[in-house]
Design the sequence.
């Protein structure tokens, strides 16, 4: 793995004044030249599932449908290593491995106990924690930033009025990340070296940012995805409870569910099971399949995008969200599923995204996450009681497996039952 050397980082840290302006211009030029290679939003192209559903109804297997989606991506190099997991209505699970882990000397495909960074799938755990705390009365939807943060910490009037609900639903008007010189320098550093794009986003940076931030929530509420907002929400949870939000997620959600590999920090044994991430279509600086070091999201963004997990763990998490396991956190999980705001693509729940298909007859509740050299996806069809999980060790803005497989299996299971839908 390679990451930015101290020398690479130091020349950026000295940029200021006219040099900062030059660096900003360079970033904008590089972003323009890179085109789709430096996008900021995921795409989920979906094909008509009818033929696949017919195959499954006729006795075809879920494995064959997974192969049909993944193997072309392996052939073109879009996928380096991937594992796909499926939950069917009888609560049974299957997983299918492809490609390589990327670990030195390892030619095997990533197994169900292989670890990946899961990026914004972390937001699902933070949303679940918030629902627990609200149910217990420890925090309220209408608590504001000013209510929770210490009085000696100065914040602008607009930032102080932001509520927990607005942060949880991305309706507070905060940007995805702050558009500042620090962000532009980090972008340039990333484009040149592949170094962690978010390293500058720290708690002290947030505190300074809040003094001068002027978010303007829309009426009616408008969804604006914000990593910064989720980081701030985690910070408020920490201040309100006196315990780091990340510790609460592990203690109150992961441990009761038995998710032993869903963590924010890897121990030595877990590091040995970590798939090596690779550059994909997010970077302008290196060719595909270049190893990319994991990113430490820091105290601020860990509750937004800092978790690691495995297929084994995420299949348990999926079954729990489908209501199949009845753990102590079941009500908090269910509380995250409800539609909060309608959007052009469907709607937003708490952490989850909602997409509608077949004139609203089929509803997918899902989340994808991208960080460093990884891509993760989890999708649920709550009506059909089917879930799909995809973990990949190559970054991609294009999610071509999860949605497609979920639609195929859900439709087949809903129409014929799991026995006929193919094992």
Sequence:
């Amino acid at each position: 793995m390679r990451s930015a050397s101290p020398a690479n980082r130091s020349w950026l840290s000295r940029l200021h004044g006219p040099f900062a302006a030059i660096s900003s211009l360079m970033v904008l030029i590089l972003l323009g030249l890179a085109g789709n290679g430096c996008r900021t939003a995921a795409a989920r192209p979906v094909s008509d599932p009818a033929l696949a559903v017919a195959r499954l109804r006729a006795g075809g297997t879920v494995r064959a449908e997974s192969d049909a989606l993944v193997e072309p991506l392996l052939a073109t190099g879009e996928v380096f290593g991937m594992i796909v997991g499926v939950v069917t209505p009888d609560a049974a699970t299957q997983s299918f491995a492809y490609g390589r882990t990327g670990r030195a000397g390892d030619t095997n495909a990533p197994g169900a106990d292989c670890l990946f960074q899961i990026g914004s799938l972390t937001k699902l755990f933070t949303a679940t924690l918030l629902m627990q705390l609200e149910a217990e009365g420890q925090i309220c939807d209408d608590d504001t930033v000013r209510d929770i943060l210490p009085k000696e910490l100065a914040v602008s009037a607009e930032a102080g009025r932001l509520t927990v609900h607005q942060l949880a639903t991305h309706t507070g008007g905060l940007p995805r990340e702050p558009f500042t010189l620090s962000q532009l320098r980090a972008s340039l550093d990333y484009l040149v070296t592949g170094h962690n794009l978010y390293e500058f986003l720290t708690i002290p940076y947030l505190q300074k940012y809040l003094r001068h931030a002027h978010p303007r929530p829309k009426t009616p509420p408008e969804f604006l995805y914000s990593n910064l907002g989720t980081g701030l929400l985690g910070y408020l949870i920490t201040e309100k409870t006196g315990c780091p939000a990340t510790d609460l997620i592990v203690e109150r959600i992961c441990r009761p569910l038995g998710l032993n590999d869903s963590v924010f920090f890897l121990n030595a044994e877990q590091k040995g099971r970590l798939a090596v991430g690779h550059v994909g279509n997010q970077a302008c600086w290196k060719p595909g399949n270049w190893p990319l070091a994991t990113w430490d999201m820091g105290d601020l963004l860990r509750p937004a995008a800092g978790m690691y997990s495995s297929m084994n763990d995420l299949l348990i998490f999926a079954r729990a969200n489908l209501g199949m396991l009845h753990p102590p956190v079941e009500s908090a999980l269910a509380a995250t599923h409800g539609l909060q705001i309608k959007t052009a693509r469907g709607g937003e729940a708490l952490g989850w995204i909602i997409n509608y298909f077949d004139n609203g007859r089929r509803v997918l509740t899902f989340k994808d996450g991208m960080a460093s050299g990884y891509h993760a996806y989890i999708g649920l069809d709550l009506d059909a009681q089917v879930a799909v999980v995809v973990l990949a060790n190559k970054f991609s803005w294009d999610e071509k497996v999860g949605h497609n497989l979920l639609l195929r299996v859900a439709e087949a299971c809903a129409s014929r039952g799991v026995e006929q839908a193919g094992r």
User: Anything to note?
Assistant: The longest strand covers residues 362-371. DSSP finds 18 helices and twelve strands in the chain.
